[in-house]
Design brief:
Blueprint lengths: L6 H9 L4 E5 L2 E2 L4 E2 L5 E2 H10 L5 E2 L4 E4 L9 H11 L7
């Protein structure tokens, strides 16, 4: 888990924005069950978690896993920070 994003980590995430990622811990508020989100790019995963609350999801417990096993995971505050900092650049190839 990343407690604080420094410049090096932010740049590494930006550079790896096309890397496959998985999102866990997203709750669909309508059905009250964990949403199944297939593998998507890291940039799209960050965008989803940062904006999911307005789409009817509870992401307080969400984790974005990416990269090699043992790589740090991203939590909601990490995704919000990265989305605010880089926005659409995370979605570029």
């Amino acid at each position: 888990m990343l407690l604080a994003l420094d410049g090096a980590i932010s740049m590494a995430v930006l550079a790896g924005r096309g890397t496959d990622a998985e999102i866990f811990g997203v709750i669909d508020l309508a059905s009250k069950i964990e949403a199944r989100i297939g593998a998507i790019s890291l940039g799209h995963a960050i965008q989803f978690v940062a904006n999911a609350s307005v789409l009817g999801y509870d992401v307080r417990g969400a984790m974005v896993l990416y990269g090699e096993p043992g790589a740090p995971s991203l939590r909601i505050w990490d995704c919000e920070h990265l989305w605010a900092q880089y926005g659409g650049a995370l979605l570029q190839p």
